[in-house]
Amino acid sequence: MATSPAPSMSEPAPPSGVSGAHFGKQLGLKQYCNSPTMSDIIIRFGSSGERMFYGHKVVLCARSYWFQAALNGRFIESVSTEIQLHDDNDDALQYVLEAAYLPPLPEGWDPDQKHATPANDAQPEDISSANKLALFWLRCLRVADKYDFADMQARLQEYAGHELDDYTTLAACHTACTPGFLEVVREIYDLPPTLASKVRIQFFDCVMCTRSLWSSTAVMLRCVAKQHAEFAQELLDHMLRDEEKQEDKLAQ
């Protein structure tokens, strides 16, 4: 009489209540992220459409009002199997599309909970990494706003705010980071009006928190102010309002 083979160490028995036929198989949307399996829309992007993402209309329409209108409405994209997106940061767009297949971004600031990014997976330890992360999250925020991924925007703004805080703290200790600081300023001021004012206030608050180090950052701030007049004016206004608040507190 034939006997059953002994259990293999590489093939553990399924947990109680899970049939052997399903054990080891993954459920959830993550397995379909950028997968040709059941994909019904190919998204091309990049300067000449060289990058490609295998999408699923029902997933994208469930997370994005822009895709809902484009793929489920009267636009030509609704009957297309391929679309091309333009004028986006490639890595940021890739991240946002992938995030659509994952659970909503977590509340609070915990770098270990963030979805992996092309820039870095952990807290920045040097000024270059901090600069890349700040720019990356700002660009992700821009993409999420452009394509109206509504449930991502608040979290991405929070992530960007924390990275700006890290970056300005490190920048205050580096006198040779003016080009990177100016790049961050320009990225912030290029955000759409719906986002710009909130992010600018976050950024100014971050800069104000480094005031004890301004003796070492004065040269950098002056250089950036000369090249970006709007930043200079709004930072000055923010500083004056902050001084008024401090005076009011002392007067109480």
Automatic annotation (TrEMBL):
**Pfam families reported in the protein's UniProt record:** BTB (PF00651)
Q: Where is the composition biased (Low complexity)?
A: 1-11
Its recorded name reads BTB domain-containing protein
Residues spanning the membrane? none
All copies of the BTB domain together span 39-101
The record's section on SUPFAM superfamilies has:
POZ domain
Taxonomy, superkingdom:
Eukaryota
- The source organism is Trematosphaeria pertusa
Location of region: Disordered:
1-20
